[in-house]
Backbone:
């Protein structure tokens, strides 16, 4: 079997654009992957195109060799663009291998540990502006069955936060906690937006709420600073979605940066790379909670990992999504009692619809984190995409 072509597809997804990859072979078997990289979609497609000459003609089943060569021969190693490009291709190669052998990908990674995985919700707060709005949405999300709720209550703050801004954020957290009690975990997102003293100040203020974690309290390019913040506050710290491969995670480990690790299968180098990262974490009794806010193929790949990673803890899940999510793939996600079930079909258990994707062409979007529009994360006609 040989790789004959690599196709890429862009699909508008309201706040971003999904980037899908399709690897074709001379035996008619193909695989799909996802390399969604928010606001750098065309850059990652160009990177995938540049990898063509290193991949076309090779045996798609030699996944380790292909990924190693793509990484080694880049010279300028790592980074979001290259690693996302490799991630999308690598997922597609696992999909091909699973399909050719007639087994789910998790069977190729050691076999299944669990049939379903506990999920926390992101995006459940769409459109909320006041603490009362957040509280109302939180109650609805809990009814759906999620094990946790994550959100960023910090408005448009950057580096510093005013006394009024901090009070507004804490009022929002208090309103959600009062609305849901101790039924679910509360997870507070920082989006890497604060300087060290501000992150410490916020972290200490969050201690009274019993949150599960404070995510990315400072920018991700300062691991030592993150470790310092963690040492000064009484709440757990999570991070790692903007680390690209196991080599970066080694420093994350050595510096004791976070209590929970959050690699993203679309950015960290793919399925096997995240499994290697998880193995490093497991050896140090650190739980892994994959970053997973992207499209249906990334979700399918993450579920395959969650099925066979011993120290997997919680899966990030978008509470709702664009109404055309069901058009652009054959995704069938079963969600019951706060848990998402792992597909058992061969490969990743998902396929994309090229014609449907073409109906939703690329639209440019800008980062919302510092504009006070973070809750504009879903259109008004968004809907659930999972089966109950």
Residues:
């Amino acid at each position: 079997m040989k790789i004959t072509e690599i196709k890429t597809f862009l699909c508008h997804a309201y706040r971003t654009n999904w980037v899908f990859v399709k690897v074709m072979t001379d035996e008619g078997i193909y695989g799909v992957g996802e390399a969604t990289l928010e606001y750098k979609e065309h850059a990652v497609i160009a990177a995938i195109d540049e990898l063509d000459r290193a991949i076309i003609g090779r045996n798609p089943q030699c996944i380790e060799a292909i990924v190693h060569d793509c990484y080694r021969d880049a010279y300028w190693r790592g980074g979001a663009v290259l690693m996302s490009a490799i991630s999308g291709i690598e997922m597609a190669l696992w999909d091909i291998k699973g399909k050719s052998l007639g087994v789910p990908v998790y069977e190729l990674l050691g076999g299944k540990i669990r049939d379903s995985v506990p999920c926390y919700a992101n995006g459940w707060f769409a459109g909320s502006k006041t603490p009362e709005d957040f509280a109302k949405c939180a109650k609805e999300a809990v009814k759906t069955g999620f094990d946790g709720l994550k959100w960023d209550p910090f408005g448009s703050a950057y580096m510093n936060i005013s006394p009024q801004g901090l009070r507004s954020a804490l009022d929002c957290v208090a309103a959600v906690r009062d609305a849901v009690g101790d039924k679910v975990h509360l997870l507070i997102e920082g989006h890497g937006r604060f300087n060290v003293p501000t992150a410490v100040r916020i972290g200490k203020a969050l201690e009274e709420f019993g949150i599960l974690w404070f995510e990315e309290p400072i920018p991700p390019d300062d691991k030592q600073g993150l470790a310092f913040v963690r040492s000064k506050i009484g709440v757990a710290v999570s991070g790692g979605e903007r680390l690209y491969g196991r080599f970066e995670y080694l420093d994350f480990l050595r510096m004791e940066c976070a209590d929970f690790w959050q690699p993203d299968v679309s950015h960290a180098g793919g399925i096997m790379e995240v499994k290697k990262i998880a193995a490093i974490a497991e050896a140090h009794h650190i739980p892994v909670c994959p970053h997973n806010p992207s499209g249906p193929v990334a979700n399918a790949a993450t579920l395959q990992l969650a099925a066979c990673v011993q120290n997997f803890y919680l899966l990030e899940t978008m509470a709702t999504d664009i109404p055309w999510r069901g058009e652009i793939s054959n995704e069938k996600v079963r969600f019951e009692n706060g848990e998402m079930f792992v597909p058992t079909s061969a490969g990743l258990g998902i396929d994309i619809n090229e014609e449907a994707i073409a109906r939703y062409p690329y639209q440019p979007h800008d980062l919302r984190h510092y504009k006070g529009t973070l809750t504009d994360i879903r259109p008004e006609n968004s809907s659930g995409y999972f089966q109950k």
About this structure: The chain has a mean pLDDT of 97. The radius of gyration is 20 Å.
